[in-house]
Design goal:
Number of strands: 45
Shape: flat
Number of domains: 6
Structural class: alpha+beta
Distance between the termini: 114 Å
Strand content: 25-35%
Length: 794
Amino acid sequence: MKPVVPLCLSLTAALGALHAAESAAAPSLPAASSALAASALAVGASPSTSTAVSVAAANGANAAHAINAASAINAASTATSTPGSTATHLSFAALGAYQPLNLRGVDDARSVSVGVRLDRVVTAARLRLRYTYSPALVFPLSHLKVSINNEVVATVPFDREHAGQIVTQEIALDPRFLTDYNQLGLRLIAHYTLDHCEDPENSSLWADVSPTSELILDTAPIRLPNDLALLPAPFFDRRDGSRLRLPFVLPAAADDATLRSAGVLASWFGAQADYRQARFPALSALPSDTHAVVVARSTQLPADLKLPPVNGPMLIVADNPAAAGKKLLIVTGRTAAEVDQASAALVLGKTAMAGPAVQIGQIDIGAPRKPYDAPRWLPVDRPVAFKELIDDPNQLQVHGSAPDAIRLNLRVPADLFSWNGAGVPLNLKYRYTAPTVQNNSALAVQINDQLVKSYRLAPASADDAQGRLQLPVLSTGGNSSSSALDIPAFRVGSSNQLQLRFNLDSQKTGLCQSVASNPVQAAVDPDSTIDFSGFVHYAQMPNLAYFANSGFPFTRYADLAQTAVVIPDHPAPQELESMLTMLGHMGQWTGYPALRVQIARSRELTQLTGKDLLVIGGNGSAPLLARWRQALPLSIGAASSDGAADSAITRASFSVKEQWRNGAHLPDGSARLERDGPLAALIGFELPGSKGRSVVALTATDQQQLSQLLDMLEKPDRVAQLQGDVALLRGGEVDSMRVGEPYLVGYVPWYARLWSKAIQHPVLLGVLGAVAGLLLAIGAFTALQELAARRRGV
């Protein structure tokens, strides 16, 4: 790899250098220059502001200027590139293309998105493409076009020798085409005959691109200025699609107030990371290799930090003295209350932050959130228009005969309940290029890849169409016709997807008949609606699936106003990491920081009232859960082979509805599971003495096993296995069961409860119906007899 030479140029000089290198890549230079100037203006810099341009020397000649538009952020004196180039391998699967990219027809395209971090600049790039193509193609005419941001950068010809086989080809890419946000496009140009009447829908026109294809980027670091205006970068960079790993540096024996401030920040970063997931290790010293967040009072900050005087709540961005080129976000104040104000100011974004440090004057966190109003949840009190679910109206439009589905993400509360078996009303309006004759053109409505209904698209006599249907996905198990279409993952209330898939069939009526030169199109009206307002909030608990998919019942209030996180009196770093990471998950699920969460120690349990409890403890035999021993569906302890307690765990004993001690009597209907080696468990139960209040405990035989629970919650296939009130994690495998007594949360009207009970006994319901009908008939007959007698004057 060639060395990267740091060079600091003014913008004028940079553009002059680009003009000089025009012969190397003329099409890309104007776009790169415009992006550079636009980026400088976007951050408040004038066009003459100097910026960092990394130059990669190639054999001493033809210098390739690797420009990242996001690097133009401040003066050249503060934004300079540093040595330390690294290579990053980004598979298509890691970029979101989990399935093969299937290219069909004479002209079909797919794309993947890739971002470049703000603190990195691309010095070299190459595409390692793995693909297969049809052996029936006319090879001199068929090929793949590779583009970056709609600029064609390479073509990949096909040959007969490798047709039908997996081909791996590495393509060098000009790094000047790569900015902060990029679209890597692949377009298939395919022909199977030289005749003029080629059928564009012929089955021999295909190529598949493997999700193992890679984009390999060589990047060099850029030294960013200490500027709060860049937040959340570089601590979280939305251009980076990988999992966020951000350490929190906390003082030794941090108090509850400090941990609460750290938890609020973790929930905010978790909301920013969203689908990427986030992990927040807890450290007592500055990390030597990464960015970090420091949360502490001014007297507890690391001694080697050189900071301005702290005279109140402050937010500071500073260089990490333990890691060259890395930054620290310091949230501090003279008291715990001031630290809390600083964290609230950051997550609410109400402070005009700029420069290396800012002091918070006053902050108001606003009124408490209402139930079920999380920003990432659909409103459940009114119909929701599709335009509220998208960022761009183009997301509701497709073109081509077999386009990808229109996808709408739906995140709803986990406790929605349909007492009468009704579905979700969907008022769907759509438009399409109408076929000239009746054919197989259709619109399929799916929820989480499960077909709900399919509409046949009418021919040209009706240009527009609309339909109304019920999505039978939230009905009760007592209704057999509805249960056939139940989708448990959707009922859980986590992230769900409504898919509208158009299939616009070919209008050819015979060989060599004319084919429309313009591609057919279809669109869903943004005013189409979906309505969850007819449902009540009612759920049978405990249900670990609710928790693992959406954080319910804690996320019922987006600010976690009715949640307390209970940790041991002297938490280990792994337990603090679990606390911060779980609060990050809460922020991911709700899209809102946990501004009103409460942090408590096990000794403070008696002081917690009116709260749902998230309990974290890495030692199942600790006193943290001992007081609830009789209520626990599962207790964890460690014993040696002779039954005595052993600090070095040699056997983990799991006792269901019973103490874990060896030789204890097991009541009917319970079980004991014993296994050598470490285990972790997720447990749910009703808080003893508090009707309807829930406890979810993350526990294990030792603190090291808590990381397995955190890993499990990041894997959709493992989360899908969670249910009931006990989940054991052993060697990466999940075993779920229901052991304890269920309890109910929410409210159902009396008539709904009566009807729900009645439909469980259809024979009795039929008899009662017949009796009621007979009584009604007798009453009507008697009334009519009296009326007739009155008319006769009797």
